Amino acid sequence: MTLRIGMIGTGWFSRKHAEYLSEMNGVKVQAICGTSMEKAATMAADFQGSQGYDDFKRMLDSEKLDAVYICVPPMAHGQIELELIERNIPFLVEKPLGIDIETPKKILTRLEKSSLLTAVGYHFRYKQSVQRLKKAVNSTTLGMVSGYWMGQMPEIAWWRKQEGSGGQFIEQTTHIVDVLRYVAGEVDEVYANYSNRVNHMKYEQVTVADVGAVSLKMKSGVVATISNTCILPEGVNKVGMTFYTDQNMIEWHPDRIQIKDTSGSIMEELKMDNPYISESEAFLHAVRTGDASQILSDYQDAYQTQLVTCAALESALKGVPVKVK
Question: I want to staple 92 with a disulfide (CB 3.0 to 4.6 A). Which of 32, 119, 180, 319 is the partner?
Fold first, then answer.
């Protein structure tokens, strides 16, 4: 059985997903929808037998699709997911789920009335390093965590606008929040401070904060802090987390972990696996068989991460701690 896949979006993520899908046995990129026919046709030309569309409803009417990948900017979520739920078409949606909590809540409410298969692109969960991290942390008593996503501001117009991306913590650092939840459990309360230090003076129409620090109280009692910035010069980056336990200190980076204890330090350089392929394999296996056990992040779970990142924004705006609920 060949699975016929539709792609909504023609940006980098959509293209990468399509490239990986086109190399899989029994999978065909059947249709691609973009914001213009030109964009859709250009991308479709790279995938044999694929058809371009500039309207996602027309694509769904014209093609018999087994699943759809949603790779659109954060502010564009909503109608696409609701239409797919109405048509009972499984979907994998890229993070974040939106720029706020209202739209994802509407989608979740509809999903809870169905049994539709979903997956969300929190790809770090599929990395060997995160699985190793989860195992290492679970064998200890965790006390606190510090996480960070430090880098540059993407050269994308919508990313620089609060109403386009939701800001760095919602659009980008959400990956760190999700790893924290995956490894350490649910968040009870957040307190955030955001500021504009550099980018609003360097570039036009920048409304997102470029520095931020968030304190998180976990339901287990664990205390965490997550910081981010997008003011660093090109090539200067730092992404990772440090877990402090009663037995050791565990430093996690996407492709390695380092465990330090009283006997010394062990660095584990893990293989350069491709989590994008792994998440697609898990999703498509579920589409074929109905077995969703390999999907590590579905819409319901990803909604909990969205709750945390949106609570942080609310806290930063109001200047008070905010419960995650």
Answer: 119
